[in-house]
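#lab-general

N.A. 3:47 PM
ok so I finally got the sequence cleaned up, no stray characters, all 325 residues accounted for. can someone with queue access submit it? mine expired

B.Y. 3:52 PM
send it over

N.A. 3:53 PM
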Amino acid sequence: MNKKKIGITFGTVAIVIVGLIFVNRLFFSAPQIKEEKAVFIVNRSQTEAQALGRLKAQGLIRNEIALEIVLFFRHKQILFGGYNVSKNMSAWQITTKLTSTPDMKWVVIPEGWRKEQIGELLQKTFGWSDEELNKWNTVYTKMNIDYIEGTYFPDTYLIPVGESGLDMAKRMTRRFDEQFAPYTTQFAQQNIKWTTGLKLASIIQREAGGEGDMPLISGILWNRLNQNMNLEIDATVQYARGNTGNGWWAPITAVDIKNIDSPYNTYENKWLPPTPIDNPGINAIEAVLHPAQTDCLYYLHDSNRRIHCAITLEEHKANIEKYLK
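B.Y. 4:20 PM
back already:
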């Protein structure tokens, strides 16, 4: 190879190297040299393109396409959650961060779950030991008699991975206090203790086939209470029985009703149980305050979860024959 060809080769290599350095600095390098910490949150409903747009808008990357290229070559996807990042991180570093275990994880608490179910979800999400789960059930959620159950508000939470179980319990009860605050006055205006209203809301939450059923079930339960009838609610017996291996809310049997000696057995005891039986949502709480006007005392759901109510026991028995057998 003559000197001219060698010179051309070296020149080409030099141009390529300079070009790569230029491209890296222009597109892949950190937006700034100085460390500036930030929290970047990837929402559960967010697309990758939206996440990249927000990274650019927050000044955490120089170029969206550059990060797409890094993700493509690394065969990675941005994970949902919250991340502690900095503006002096390169596209490569940001990619590593956003495709690793997040610093904050999303937790979705469904309406109608009891606190033990919430604890099991938290254990799975945050890798709790069995000891920590036991503390959730027996210590963290039993520090206030009015907050034993029903006050771990069903919602979507973004929780730091290092947060203690006690602080998670406090986080959920704070959310409950915020969401429930407008209703305390309404309960007082109707001469209903808020704790009573919450117990009834928890029953409505478990018994309803959907939002539309809640006012009717509320009206029926209020009718039973006002007529000094036993509530006779399966869900309260389920709560007393707990998880025997078939889930927390497996159907009860006649044997359960007869043998479970508990104040939560509303077939055997009048009035409401000692505490809520789950953590209800706002619709169930509002149903307590705004029950449907009805003469019905009984109800059932057919196989399609449609509700059918009856005024007399005889009508209810006829509904059982018609819709359940």
